């Protein structure tokens, strides 16, 4: 699950804090005494305040933990589905483990990036986000980076290429994100949500084409692409402003925003692979040198050089999706 950064703003006129928070990917600004109108004059950003987009005391509730009774109060609000911010003079002694079991909308009040990293990773699940209380500009930036890199991870498997078949002209989707990717990174796409290839970003250049490290040439319009929080979409549905997940070869994920999605007619290849435990993975990708899968070592391998026996990275799960949400049902996809 992607995490959220909330920054406490002591004064709505503190332009430096507001601007830095925005540049650090803030989800919302917390103003305990109000002042949302002044904030809105500085930037388009959500606020948590008595006069905010989210009402403090209704949508978000701050609970200061001093004793067991306070913990029980926080647990009660979590069970009601409220967004609960837990606060104490030393937050690390809070039994966050207990509160995490009571609901998913738990936020920790933290003072620096180190505390934020602990909060969002505790018991692997972590809190939904953090409220950062600091006047240090660099600490806001560091915490923003911690949150950005805290995207969900997946367990990638090695699959063996079984067959590559040219299938002629199809409509394919090229996703240009508003982020730069590095070698070993790409998006998960596949004919089925139960089996997806890690299609490498266009980070490599050659004598004919310059690198475009913001791009994933994702595949045919019918294929699934993995989104945050374990959701999927058909590639044909992807549009500007959407969020997709970018993963590296270790399975570590982060959110990227779509800047543009292009649908064009191109010659395509049906690529089929199989994992060691017998899971089948298939996808239809453009027949071009710049389209690459990812090896277990994190290296890109072009689909035009691909041959049976080659090893590539894939993600597998049980089949079954309804409007992009995973469901338990009996389903066979061929």
Automatic annotation (TrEMBL):
Domain 3-dehydroquinate synthase N-terminal intervals: 9-146
EC number, as in UniProt: 1.4.1.-
Gene Ontology BP, a term: aromatic amino acid family biosynthetic process
Keyword Cell division: no
Pfam families per record: DHQS (PF01959), DHQS_2nd (PF26558)
Keyword terms of this UniProt record: Amino-acid biosynthesis, Aromatic amino acid biosynthesis, NAD, Oxidoreductase
All residue ranges annotated as the 3-dehydroquinate synthase C-terminal domain in the record: 159-334
InterPro entries, alphabetized: DHQS, DHQS/DOIS_N, DHQS_C
Presence of keyword Metal-binding: no
GO terms of molecular function: 3-dehydroquinate synthase activity; NAD binding; oxidoreductase activity, acting on the CH-NH2 group of donors, NAD or NADP as acceptor
NCBIfam families assigned to the protein according to its UniProt record, in alphabetical order: PRK02290.1-5
Entry's family note: Belongs to the archaeal-type DHQ synthase family.
Protein name: 3-dehydroquinate synthase homolog
